Amino acid sequence: MKLGALRRVLREVERLPAGAAGVLRFGDRGTLLCDAGLVCWASATGARERLGELLRRQRNPPLPRRYLAEVVKTCRAESRPLGEALLATGEVTEKGLRAALFRQACDAIERLAEGTERPTFTPLADDAVHYDHRFAFHPTEILVQIGSRGHKAMAVLATRELVSMGSTRPTVGFLCEQEHGPVAIAVRQPDGLCIDDLPAGQWGCALAALAEDAAGVAEGPPSPTGKRPLVWKSGPFCFLELPRNGSAEVHA
Description:
Blueprint lengths: L2 H12 L6 E6 L3 E6 L2 E7 L6 H6 L8 H14 L3 H8 L4 H19 L7 E4 L15 H9 L4 H14 L5 E7 L3 E8 L12 H13 L4 E2 L10 E5 L2 E5 L11
Antiparallel strand pairs: 1-2, 1-4, 2-3, 5-6, 5-9, 7-8, 8-9
């Protein structure tokens, strides 16, 4: 999957007016339910796995298929979300539900990125119930998750390093591949980032080169959104930290 196509789809979420809630429809290919810049639900024809199967495997041992079928039947009769019903029964944890929804969203968005349709947007009615943001996802964390799929072990290590840093500012761990260029594989504080803040293209390559040559932390060229990042190298990873206010804050 080319990350450029994923960026195109996820930018459509970022282009929505601030606070907008509604459905982005990509022709017959699928839909994204968005709320305040977050992806709350994604569906696409031909996506790998159904949510029910993803939820079933969030428990060890997995939920019996017969039990899940009964819950699905009840949810349809009551117009109730499946995840919410399983969460209420205690059969799936909040963490497990979020993991299943995240996996489904990433798989669906990968499918949407295979097409070229420009989406149409239909706002939700003013009295519609908004989605629980505990189970919604920022476009940047979706892009990082999909991009890291070919580097799972490295992504785990980069994420651990980000956590150990304890930074409260948006921070990204990335690799710079000779063939594909910069690939973000870990992110912290994604709500402070947009898609164009993630390293890519000539800007990302310049950041990687600067991190490679610098003795420590260096201030990099501004991102396409005008933010000045701090960059550094640690082992096989490059890291960039972006301020929320657009100016670099030098480490002590």
